[in-house]
Amino acid sequence: MDDRKHTAINETGHHRTMPLPDRDDRETIRKTLKGDQRAFERIVLKYQRMLYAVVIRIVRSHDDTDDILQECFLRAYRHLAEFDLSRPLYPWLRQIAANQAISLLRRQARLQPVENPDIFPSTENETSRYAERDEFDQALQRAIDTLPVEQRTVLLLRVHENMSYQELSQTLGIEIGTVMSRLARARAKLRNLMRPHLAERRTSA
Amino acid sequence: MSNQPKQRGTDCGTAAEWIHLHLDNELDAGRQQELQAHLDKCPTCRSSFEELRLLLAAQNRVEATFDAPPAGYFEEFPQRLMARIAAEERHVRNVPMWQPVRLAKWLRKMLGGRVKYAVSFAVAAALIFIITRQLQQPELSTTQAFSEQPEARQYAEASKSRAELEQSERDSLVGPSLSHFPLAEKIPASESPAPLESQMKEYFVKDDSFNYAPRQLDEMQSLQLPVATADLTPDALSKSSAAATSQEAAGAGAALSAKKVESSKASLRKKQTAALSSANVDETYAFSLSMPLAAGGEEFASTLKLAQVARSDSERIAVWQKYLETAPESSYRDLAIGRLARNYITAVDSSSSTKLIEEALLFFNKNNGLIEAEMGKKVYAEEVNRLEELLQRKSLLEQEE
User: Fold this and answer.
1) ipTM above threshold 0.90
2) Left if phi > 0, otherwise alpha if psi is -120 to 50, otherwise beta: which for A8?
3) Which strand (E) or helix (H) includes residue A7?
4) H or E segment at B78?
């Protein structure tokens, strides 16, 4: 199989690339550990957008994403000395961020009553970007939003970050079997929720 | 159909599973063919596959965009973050003298830096305890001096949510399987001595606002206190842990952990199996180290632990070299070789030692088969070239001198 880590073309022709190799990062980390605080900013600048993209898709709120990003970089900074320089930096940051996102959603879920998964959440808050998409995609987005946290996160990381089962297992700290079952359940659920739309699309194809 | 010979054939349950793997590019070529064969025959599965594929394509479309953050967000975010970091650093330096952290730093200086940070911390905490008890001043009693018994018990007994937060922070940093070692909380002291620093870490409250709350490893980083260069062997560590840990805290910590150790053992073993069967060196981070699977597992486990607490590349290299010398028959040998190879690479980056480069090159050549397998032929070749170039450059310089 090709080297999935760097570029991969998945089922739908979507490309993913990892950022530049890590020699750069190692230098920056070393400088930071030697006491050059500002060197760390290089890392923030390099990865902030990628991490933002990952987190926003999971938590879907800008303010929450902002909190999580800050916390993620802060933790990375505090624990920089423990980081083994022979590992790539981005997966580590992503892991921190993803787990933060999951914790946040779990905390929030405890405070709110459980939603009936058969009813799509109201679309009042959604802005015009949704309106530009066709109805199928809009419905899918809403359906994804109703997935339970764990399923949604695995699905999003799998597709958006193009992570392998092994990477997902490591990043989220779950068995590979769990990764597979969460993906399967998430997709089954989506398929169920999208049943009418799918029927329509197939008859019109 | 009925006069066809009965084939091994895939059933729908398996096909359903394989469809997901196929969509995720995780299905090997042989099985792909079998799946295709089944889909050709089975309309139910075929329609399932079509729909899932459609949904995947749609999801990719949907995810191609997301709500852009407010204008200028990515310009001001780094500034905000760096300001927070600067504030945190300043705060630590301004911690008043009578807090154990400051006192410990001062003590350590007085004692000439030969004492381990954690020992001086314990002494400092004890001193403050004595002083506060003697003076009985109300202001001082509000300090979070670790030695205050009720507070120590409170921290050590860690309300469930706090323990969860701690665990989740550790998990988020290194993944839960790794975080199960080498902390005193998870592994009873008798099995394997945890490094003292991480033991101490257990008993301090992580306070993410800027109120004073000792954070061991962070304090050490920001105060730039080096870990003692003394022996990091398990013997030496256990001696110093015995010397400086408070009984009370250790007792409470162990009680917390006993249950968790049991349940985690089974799942850890599974993870270890998965990691072992993978060729990727990074999988070592998924290792469970409380249940060695094969010969040499225990040594590998403690070596990985030592490598983790090592504070410099040369320490890590020494750790792995020692392992390879003492465990020639180990089933974990190739993983260790991979680790050592990577540590050589990072060490050479920051060191100007010719000897190191030579040593690294020798190591790479001697173990070329295994290292190539670990990091891939291309990366291996690149790294070896780089080492050779560096060496050439160095010897030219030396000739000129």
Assistant:
1) no
2) beta
3) strand A7-9
4) helix B73-93
CA B179 – CA B185 distance, rounded (Å): 11
B175 torsion bin: left (phi>0), alpha (psi -120 to 50), beta (else): left
What three-state secondary structure class fits A21?
coil
Nearest to A85 by CA among A37, A41, A21: A21
- For residue A189, the chain B residue with the least C-alpha distance is B52
Q: Do B57 and A74 touch (CB under 8 A)?
A: no
Q: A78 to chain B, minimum CA–CA distance in Å?
A: 6
Contact across the interface for A73 and B81, Cβ inside 8 Å: yes
- Which of A185-199, B324-338, B341-355 comes out lowest in average pLDDT? B324-338
**In one letter, which amino acid is B369?**
G
Angle (CA) A185 A187 A188, round 5°: 65
Higher pLDDT, B344 or B10: B344
Instruction: Inspect the interface and report whether the beta carbons of A48 and B67 lie closer than 8 Å.
Output: no
Residue B189, Ramachandran bin (φ over 0: left; ψ between -120 and 50: alpha; else beta) = alpha
Amino acid symbol at B314: S
All residues of chain A having their beta carbon less than 8 Å from the beta carbon of residue B376 are: 3
Amino acid sitting at position B37: A
Choose the mutation target among B21, B55, B171 for the interface with A, i.e. most A CBs under 10 Å: B55
Give the residue-averaged pLDDT of A128-137. Answer: 64
Q: What is the pLDDT of residues B8-27, one digit of tens each?
A: 567 899 999 999 999 999 99
Q: Which of A12, A61, A91, A105 is nearest to B59 (CA)?
A: A12
